[in-house]
Design a protein that fits this description.
248 residues; alpha/beta; five-stranded parallel beta sheet; four-stranded mixed beta sheet; 11 helices
């Protein structure tokens, strides 16, 4: 059940076309669908404004398909799938409509409504190797109806690259900064921007980067105001949060 369906039920009660008891039954019996291996939260879009997202890693292709089908059958027009591998994408696409991006490992099942995108979210990376995580963030934000501008490979080893894009940074509503190594990009952008900066530490780097831990600690200790940090390689979390901020 989504907000549109809930609104229709409430309007029917208000117009006398449905009893209160019938409305309660329809609402009460649809909080989630139990598939055995998963309990699909069909009320999430009512509570949070955004439907349940499928984390594809660790799930079989059959499980992903069944969860997608359950969400679409509940009234959602599209489903976001993160960390989806190519084999699962090929399987799901044989049964339902699916758009898949190999770089970000993002899949979109169903059909996104054609609505005007709002605001301006900038997604920046320190290097080219950070792009897969940045694309996960960018495509998540686009899924939720936001305008996204990409600034890739503008890390601190060549400051002129980020300085050449000050106009883009200064007009953003939210900025996502994805970087590995020492993770300095978030502090640099945070010191120039007048909007919230969401830092994404990536697992890119040599041995002492400890799989992104060095970047995570650097970003957590940023002296720039207005910088928040998500978990290592959590592009989805950054894109979701940026969307919430941008749409306020």
């Amino acid at each position: 059940m989504n907000k549109k369906e809930l609104t229709e039920i409430l309007n029917m009660v208000a117009n006398g076309k449905m009893t209160v008891d019938d409305a309660m039954l329809r609402i009460k019996t649809k909080p989630y669908e139990d598939l055995g291996f998963a309990k699909v939260d069909t009320h999430r879009s009512i509570r949070q404004g955004m439907a349940e997202v499928i984390y594809g890693a660790g799930k079989t292709k059959e499980q992903i398909l069944q969860i997608c089908t359950a969400i679409l059958d509940s009234g959602e027009s599209a489903v976001l799938i993160t960390r989806m591998n190519e084999q699962a994408a090929a399987y799901v696409s044989k049964h339902i409509e699916l758009e898949y991006d190999e770089v970000s490992k993002i899949g979109i099942a169903g059909t996104l409504p054609q609505t005007e995108k709002v605001g301006k979210i900038v997604v920046a990376t320190g290097g080219t190797s950070d792009i897969p995580i940045a694309e996960e963030a960018a495509r998540t934000a686009e899924f939720y109806g936001n305008n996204v501008i990409r600034l890739y490979d503008v890390g601190v080893s060549g400051m002129h690259r980020i300085m050449d894009n000050l106009d883009v940074i200064s007009t953003a509503r939210v900025i996502i900064a994805a970087a590995g190594m020492e993770g300095a990009l978030a502090s640099v952008i945070g010191g120039m921007a007048d909007c919230p900066v969401i830092a994404v530490p990536t697992s890119i780097g040599y041995g002492a980067s400890f799989g992104g831990l060095a970047a995570l600690l650097s970003m957590l200790n940023s002296c720039a105001s207005g910088v928040s940090v998500v978990n290592i390689d959590n592009g989805f979390g950054a894109g979701y949060l940026a969307s919430m901020i941008n749409r306020i």
